[in-house]
Design goal:
The complex is a heterodimer of chains A (about 190) and B (about 300).
Chain A lengths: L1 H24 L9 E13 L2 E2 L2 E2 L3 E14 L4 E12 L3 E13 L5 E15 L6 E16 L4 E17 L2 E23 L1
Antiparallel strand pairs in A: 1-4, 1-10, 2-3, 4-5, 5-6, 6-7, 7-8, 8-9, 9-10
Chain B lengths: L3 H20 L18 E5 L7 E6 L2 E2 L2 E2 L3 E7 L2 E6 L5 E5 L7 E5 L7 E5 L7 E3 L5 E5 L4 E5 L5 E5 L6 E6 L5 E5 L4 E5 L5 E5 L5 E6 L5 E5 L7 E6 L7 E7 L2 E7 L3 E6 L5 E5 L6 E6 L4 E6 L3
Antiparallel strand pairs in B: 1-2, 1-26, 2-5, 3-4, 6-7, 7-8, 8-9, 10-11, 11-12, 12-13, 14-15, 15-16, 16-17, 18-19, 19-20, 20-21, 22-23, 23-24, 24-25
Classes of the chains: A mainly beta (about 190), B mainly beta (about 300).
């Protein structure tokens, strides 16, 4: 079942990226003017399962990501800040803040992103630990497709690696390293300068 | 103006969003539920009677109503009592001997030898692991529960209020449940260490486990003869209910997602019995060497 979910997830991600890319290609790239871009995404996953008529411990997960950046086409680069917050159930939340660096070619809709997150903080309520701290890096390959002149669809595939070094402020003997591969689907606003 | 490519892009994006949401993964150590059909392999400990005489065995599966042949995991143990496994597959074994100091040993995944992790535990009889792989162990002579901290050091968790803790169960929210033989109760201990009695009037509550909904199951040993009971404690509260009685010296119990409960009947029976939570049927599914003590199904 787990393998099937992975397969479905990857297939859909690739399919979505290709479809969006194809549509985006028909609309050209970002243009040559400098731009301020604000983009974001919210995913909400609700889990309510039963077995033999009994509710199972599930919960909800919300993934929020907001980024603001300044793109300079003549240097094929952009720079900005990104904020991510994931809430899992009622007991766990994770906050990350990082510097977003982007490479792109102004005639194409594709971009490469790299984000070193200097802040990665997990908080737990009513659990055996209260917090974890560390850092995170994120790599992404994405496309932006214009929906209107000021609104665009943002789709990407991201790989992020989180390294937790402290629990409750105490250095752990072995850091916890977690790698996640995920699709990203969002919307953005652009403001040519 | 909206063009065909606009509509195509937006439509597919919405479809992908819905599908990706439905197939999305949780994040790391989130509180979740077990999704496997069965939690095998099953592990059990054989205490033996003296130093170096104990062992832990593994059973791969339940096939056609009978457990597969036990495989030896590790031997040469000093009266092993409780067993537990963390998310990385490390097997923790509490050892009662030599008295008064007991210890916890760990068997790394794939290893066939156990190495000492913690010593000086004053008669440990139960170990458990929480959602952060923190280890909990009882120190029965002191009526305490200890736990490991972020640095891996052992620190006190519950210092007072316990009376002869016998078994531990940790739920997905890191609440620790403990069966206490001295007072005949099952108590819930919050992550902050606050103790609340959830069931009382149990004559020698030994093994303790829970199902996916959080309902607790306890084997009540009573006199050590053929008068043991399997008791259900609803998660939502309410009166404990006896599911089965006339059990032969029941000492430990574990929950399996597919088959219900497995419990150990100690000497002279020395066997593993399955209790179906659907039908209420009791079935002897295998035998153990003499002096079985603890039973565990892999928690992931």
């Amino acid at each position: 079942m787990h393998e099937l979910r992975h397969y479905l997830l990857r297939s859909l991600t690739i399919a979505a990226s290709l479809a969006v890319s194809g549509a985006a290609f028909s609309q050209g790239g970002a243009g040559t003017a400098d731009q301020i871009i604000v983009s974001g995404s919210v995913f909400y996953v609700s889990d309510a399962s039963q077995r033999d008529g009994k509710d199972l411990p599930g919960g909800t997960t919300t993934y929020l990501s907001v980024a603001g950046q300044y793109n300079v086409p003549k240097y094929f680069a952009g720079i900005g800040l990104i904020y991510q917050k994931n809430d899992t159930g009622e007991t766990q939340s994770e906050t990350a803040v990082g510097l977003k660096l982007e490479l792109f070619y102004y005639e194409w809709p594709f971009y490469l992103e790299f984000v070193p997150f200097s802040v990665l903080h997990q908080e737990f309520a009513n659990r055996s630990i209260e917090s974890r701290d560390g850092n995170m890096t994120l790599f992404g390959l994405g496309v932006r497709a214009d929906l209107f002149s000021w609104l665009f669809f943002d789709g990407s595939f991201k790989i992020r690696t989180s390294t937790y070094k402290k629990e409750d402020g105490v250095e752990m003997p072995e850091p916890i390293v977690r790698t996640e591969k995920m699709p990203y689907l969002g919307l953005g606003l652009k403001f040519p300068i | 103006m909206l063009s065909f490519s606009h509509i195509f892009t937006f439509g597919f994006a919405c479809l992908a969003l819905v599908c990706a949401t439905a197939c999305g993964e949780g994040s790391g150590s989130s509180v979740g539920k077990f999704t496997r059909d069965a939690n095998f392999p099953l592990y059990f400990s054989i205490s033996g009677t003296r130093l170096g005489d104990g062992s832990v065995y593994k059973i791969a599966a339940l096939e056609r109503g009978a457990l597969a042949t036990p495989e030896l995991v590790v031997s040469g143990l000093d009266f092993p009592t409780g067993i537990a496994m963390d998310g990385a597959g490390r097997l923790y074994i509490a050892e009662k001997l030599p008295e008064p100091d007991g210890k916890v040993k760990v068997v790394e995944p794939g290893a066939t030898t156990a190495t000492v992790l913690v010593t000086g535990l004053h008669n440990p009889v139960a170990v458990a692991v929480d959602s952060f792989d923190r280890l909990y162990v009882t120190a029965n002579d002191l009526d305490r529960i200890l736990k490991t901290d972020a640095a891996g050091d052992v620190v006190p968790f519950v210092d007072t209020g316990l009376s002869s803790p016998r078994d531990l169960y940790v739920d997905p929210h890191d609440n620790v449940y403990v069966s206490e033989v001295g007072e005949g109760v099952v108590a819930k201990i919050s992550p902050k260490g606050e103790r609340t009695v959830v069931a009382s009037g149990l004559a020698n509550p030994f093994g303790l486990t829970a199902d996916l909904a959080g309902d607790l199951y306890v084997v009540v040993n009573r006199t050590g003869g053929n008068d043991g009971e399997l008791v259900h404690i609803p998660a939502a509260g309410g009166t404990p209910k006896t599911l089965a009685s006339g059990l032969a010296n029941p000492v430990a119990v574990a929950f399996d997602n597919a088959h219900g409960l497995f419990f150990i009947e100690g000497g002279p029976a020395n066997r593993i019995v399955n209790y179906s939570l659907k039908s209420g049927e009791l079935t002897v599914v295998g035998e153990t060497p003499a002096n079985p003590y603890a039973i565990m199904l892999t928690p992931f």
